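Reply to dn_fold:

You asked what the input looked like. This is it:
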Amino acid sequence: MCAPFACFSSCLTNENYLEMIKYWEPSRPGKRKIMVFQYGKVASTAIVKGLKLFANLTAAHVHAKSHAKQWLQGAHVDLPVLQQGFALSQEWSLNPGDECFIITAARSHFSRDPSEYFENVLMENHPYGYHPRGVERFSDRAPRNGERRWTMEDIVYMGQHNAEALIKDFRAQHKQVLAFYAKWFSREFRGATSLNVLSEPFDLQNRFSLIQGKQCSALVLRSEDSESWGEILSKIFPGFKMPVFSNSGKTKWYSEAYKAFKGNLTWTRTEIQAMCRTETERHFYKADATSPCRDLH
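and this is what came back:
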């Protein structure tokens, strides 16, 4: 009954364990297929979890155009189990006659980019984790004599004593990472789904946009409006609630370093201009009164 967890008495009464069991339990796919497809660090896992726990709907969870295409073509999606969102087999992909719904979300680069840096700072397959450190690099290389890779302990130490070293390393890579995301919605999202979420202004008052396509519909959200997601999604997916779930930097091993980093980071005008030129900032945020891009010329 407690599988895949060790079965002990609290497993039957502890709210967190009961939630995990429900989250992992298998369920049969219906005719309403859902894909949560967006770039990382926008709280999308909370949407996947809320759909499963409270609306009894299993959603495929993807970040890459190639994986979204696999899902839309009715193929098995080549993703690790945890990221896949428990839609694990081909039967969960879109098939003829299915109702297709795609959920995507944006997050301002001004908050998202530092978050992405810390999430990937030790990942050797991500530009923010490439070695060597503090200089622009376009691929990872093995440490040479006298060099070594950064560790968790290094990140924590720099957060306490040398946040500027972290900021220097972030800045060395930020330009090339930002270039990938600058046109994410037109190149990646539209390239996979044929849906143009930029075709009409984002509805700041209602905090979502709904884009209708020939095959699929897309619900478009902003991470900054996540406190309203429960109300928004429950109207489309009855029963949906936002889970008591935190994937923020405040709960991570690097939380104190992240806090020090943000406290010492001041964006340059060049960086602000580059972020304000992205689709994300121009479409979802520039009209917002709080946007740094609102009055930028």
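The chain has twelve helices and five strands.
Hope that clears it up.
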